[in-house]
Specification:
single chain, mainly alpha, TPR_rpt
């Protein structure tokens, strides 16, 4: 405002002087203060430019200072955080030492021992399981082998029975029955049929022994008593023969129809007890 006031005063002063000296101002072709105004405007623009540059430099300086201050704060915060972490780690390590924790080597050894124990336990467990599986597999293999053998023996015995039915001579039948007994020694049916064949060729004692063996193996087998009765009848032991006949009929009443058809009982036909056993 002071500069503007001085400019206006400077501009109006010549006009006043000219008026006082009775100079004809109207005869002037252009204002005398125009160059001064231009000079003033230029000075003002220059001043504004200088002030703007100063302001820019000051703002830039303040921004740089603010960034520097922020960087310092970040560095200080990072440093403080790292220091705090180290303090915490140091305090924790000291606490672990005070509480009696073992060194890293001890911890490694302990881990190795624990892992070895666990591995040994797992190994023992799997070994036990494998052993159980092996035992079960062995038992099943034995069962399978035994079953296969039984099937084979059954087929062989079946074939021998069919062959025995086709043989005509008693000696050949006895040979077939011997083969059956070699496969299945406790086959009481083969023993009984062999005893019958032995009776046909006169081997009464042998037939009696086979009948006794069959009865020892199965005392509920009617044909064994029947064959033994035949042997006793051939040996003229009527009491023993009649006793076995009655036992056989009690076990299987269908044998009652065969009493008169059995040729080995011919010497018993006149016996009263034998007649009483005949079907009515």
């Amino acid at each position: 405002m002071s500069k503007l006031f001085l400019a206006i005063l400077f501009f109006t002063l010549p006009i006043t002087l000219f008026s006082q000296n009775n100079i004809q101002v109207d005869s002037l072709e252009e204002p005398l203060y125009r160059p001064l105004i231009e000079r003033y405007i230029l000075d003002e623009i220059k001043t504004l430019r200088q002030e703007n540059q100063s302001l820019r430099a000051e703002v830039t300086k303040k921004i740089a200072e603010a960034k520097l201050e922020s960087s310092d704060r970040a560095v200080n915060y990072t440093t403080s955080t790292i220091n705090n972490i180290f303090y915490i780690i140091t305090a924790a390590a000291s606490l672990l030492v005070l509480l009696g924790w073992r060194s890293l080597n001890d911890i490694k050894k302990s881990l190795k021992i624990d892992m070895a124990k666990k591995i040994q336990t797992l190994t023992s467990d799997y070994e036990d399981r494998l052993q159980q599986v092996e035992v079960k597999m062995t038992e099943r293999s034995k069962v399978i082998i035994e079953t296969q053998k039984n099937i084979t023996d059954t087929n062989s015995i079946h074939s021998l029975w069919m062959r025995a039915g086709l043989e005509k001579s008693d000696e050949d039948k006895i040979s077939v029955y011997d083969e059956i007994l070699s496969i299945k020694p406790d086959d009481i049916e083969a023993m009984t049929y062999k005893a019958d064949a032995l009776l046909e060729i006169g081997e009464i004692r042998w037939a009696l022994d086979l009948s006794n063996n069959a009865i020892e193996l199965d005392n509920e087998y009617a044909l064994a008593y029947w064959q033994r009765a035949c042997a006793y009848s051939k040996m003229d032991k009527q009491a023993e023969a009649l006793k076995d006949i009655k036992k056989a009929i009690d076990l299987s009443d269908t044998l009652e129809e065969e009493l008169l058809n059995e040729k080995h009982f011919e010497n018993l036909h006149d016996n009263k007890l034998f007649k009483s056993l005949l079907p009515k």
